[in-house]
Design brief:
The complex is a heterodimer. By secondary structure, chain A is an all-alpha fold. Helix content of chain A is 74%, strand content 0%. Chain B folds into two domains: 45 residues, no CATH class; 235 residues, Orthogonal Bundle (MetI-like fold). Chain B is an all-alpha fold. Classes of the chains: A mainly alpha, B mainly alpha.
Chain lengths: 306, 313
């Protein structure tokens, strides 16, 4: 009896000592390589400009400085504007997506909704087929007329079928029919039941899909590249893409014998570029440890089975 | 419970609250899924913009049959695009599968739970960074004059490599980066599945004298199989798709690297934005979608015959 108690679930499943050390080292190296990018970029943003020019990119520079950030604070008109666009798009988009996806999921999860099956299939079909980049582009620019409009960054992602599936599973498994039934007996209307009972109970699920959505809005540069071609209202991520393209463009002109200034482009200094990368990544890095566990939950409870 | 057959309108009225709840999503699906799907007809047209609106142009552009497809198939780009997309995706399919299962199982067997949390949290991090951000990090390594790798090469007396003009290093590099970015995310599912296995199975296997490898082979892997199959179906449908950022941003749009970095998605984007060839780029996209759908349906059919529990639908 005593012996049996000693063998816990962890022990049974675990490696013996030798392999355990080996795999720990392997995972530690891999894990290190995964957080390295961010630390490296922070270091580069704090490196003195002349160090980068003389020694190239280094993990540990000779001179540290906050100059890039100070410069960014004073001169960063476009960076500030882009930061604002990113925040606006992320907040509004996430609110819309979580609201629309949850209400849709709630309706199709109810057994007394006569058209539940129709609307389930109506949404699921979209997982099987992708409409394609060009037809979507034509609809957004030609039909909706959203070229160079900030809503072109929000609307194409303001509802997610994958989120609907996660929420549907959530509603089906974690909100007992009996509670809703008793509320109905007490005379609560359907809308009141949804706002007062269902939503508070669904907070963990809503948090999960909001985080997924929030990140994909924050990280999106593709829609901006497609739709925001003649405007300064671009999100941070796309600003980074533009800077990156300009560097490439200029290094090509230089190697082709042209002068960098002839290109007529103003390019932020090396340190400043990395400071912008840090600004674009910091919100994720700061909140990441907190929301990381929701992703794991969302992936494992949500499931994808239709 | 005897239900009277209600009229359709009565049914709509009875369900009005639910219909209100699905309304925004329905509208979204119509505008951003069903209409674009129908708009794929421009693949068979010589699409012409008109000032009377998109729907008008859609109905009044001249039909050209399969000409756009022919044009795409006959272009030199087609084989490069097909080779790259399939090649990279097969590599990803196989390597992601292998490493995700490998690390999922390894993590489920580690002794120290706290260290495990640290590893998992770190490994998931790149998944949350965009390629736009990672492009800068990668450039810091590969930059021809300031990059860390060339710095090391030079300090050891070697000749620096102009990475962004050296196509031969890119297939391996792109595959490595793709697997690296997704490994934390991909392995979670298998980790969770392996953790969910009842410890009694391991106990029984140990009593039968099974060593670690035999336990993994006979207990862990069979338990992971249904999840793995489901992921396989989902991923096979994407075999004609590619991670746009990886193939577009990481090679920095370098002309010399086009041959090794051009995939369906980057090709479609470039055809749309540089030559504005709407018909042909839609045709390429339609091909991508149709093949993807067929692959999902076929794989699912096969899986449903062999392993009904693991089928998607």
């Amino acid at each position: 009896m005593r012996k049996k108690k000693h063998i816990s679930a962890v022990d049974i499943r675990s490696f013996s000592k030798g392999p355990n050390i080996f795999f720990n080292i392997l995972l530690a190296i891999l894990a290190l390589s995964c957080v390295l990018p961010f630390f490296f970029i922070i270091v580069l943003s704090l490196t003195k400009e002349s160090d980068i020019t003389t020694y190239g990119y280094q993990f540990w520079p000779k001179h540290w400085t906050f100059a890039s950030y100070e410069y960014l604070g004073r001169m960063g008109g476009q960076v500030l504007e882009s930061f604002g666009v990113s925040i606006f798009v992320t907040v509004i988009g996430t609110l819309m997506n979580s609201l629309f996806s949850s209400t849709y999921a709630y309706a199709i999860s109810r057994r007394d909704f006569a058209f539940a099956r129709f609307f389930t299939i109506f949404a699921l079909v979209s997982m099987l087929f992708t409409p394609g980049m060009v037809p979507t582009y034509l609809v957004v620019t030609q039909m909706l007329g959203l070229k160079d409009n900030v809503w072109a960054l929000i609307l194409p992602a303001c509802f997610g079928v994958y989120n609907v599936l996660i929420m549907r599973t959530f509603f089906k498994t974690s909100i007992p029919e009996a509670i809703l039934e008793s509320a109905r007996v007490d005379g609560a209307g359907e809308i009141k039941i949804f706002t007062d009972i269902v939503v508070p109970m669904a907070i963990p699920g809503i948090a999960t899909i909001s985080l997924f959505t929030c990140l994909s809005y924050w990280n999106d540069w593709f829609n901006a590249m497609l739709y925001m071609t003649n405007t300064k209202m671009i999100p941070l991520q796309y600003l980074l893409v533009q800077i990156s393209n300009n560097i490439q463009y200029m290094s090509q002109t230089i190697s082709a014998g042209g002068s960098a200034l002839a290109a007529g482009q103003t390019l932020p200094s090396e340190g400043m570029r990395f400071a912008i990368v840090v600004v674009a990544t910091l919100p994720i890095a700061l909140t990441y440890p907190f929301f990381q566990k929701y992703f794991v939950k969302g992936m494992t409870i949500g499931g994808v089975k239709g | 419970m005897v239900k009277k057959k209600k009229s359709f309108w009565q049914k709509l009225k009875d369900n009005r609250v639910y219909l209100l709840l699905v309304a925004p999503g329905t509208l979204f699906l119509i505008i951003f899924f069903y209409i674009p799907v129908l708009a794929n007809v421009v693949a068979f047209q010589n699409f012409q913009y008109s000032d009377q609106g998109f729907i008008y142009s859609l109905f009044h552009s001249p039909w050209v049959g399969f000409q756009n497809f022919e044009f795409f198939f006959k272009s030199a780009d087609f084989w490069i695009v097909l080779r790259n997309t399939l090649g990279y995706n097969l590599a990803f399919l196989f390597l992601n599968f292998f490493f995700a299962i490998f690390f999922g199982i390894v993590m489920s067997q580690l002794r120290n739970r706290k260290l495990l949390k640290v590893y998992q949290t770190s490994m998931l991090f790149p998944y949350f960074l965009s390629w736009a951000v990672l492009a800068f990090f990668i450039y810091a390594f590969l930059s021809p004059d300031k990059g860390i790798i060339n710095h090391i090469i030079q300090s050891m007396g070697g000749k620096p490599i102009d990475f962004y003009n050296t196509p031969s290093v890119w297939p391996g590099l792109l595959i490595f980066l793709g697997v690296w970015k997704g490994i934390g995310y991909n392995s979670i599912l298998y980790f969770a599945t392996a953790m969910g296995i009842n410890p009694e199975y391991y106990e029984a296997a140990m009593i039968d004298g099974a060593n670690k490898w035999e336990q993994i082979k006979n207990v862990t892997l069979p338990a992971i199989l249904p999840v793995a199959t489901l992921m396989l179906i989902l991923n096979i449908g994407g075999i004609f798709r590619s991670d746009f950022g990886l193939f577009y941003l990481i090679p920095r749009n370098s002309g010399t690297l086009i041959n090794v970095s051009q995939t369906f998605d980057t090709y479609i984007y470039r055809a749309l934005t540089t030559t504005n060839d709407i018909g042909m780029s839609t045709a390429a996209g339609l091909l991508q979608s149709v093949v993807g759908m067929l692959l999902i349906i076929i794989t699912n059919m096969i899986v449903r015959k062999k392993q009904p529990d693991a089928a998607l639908f």
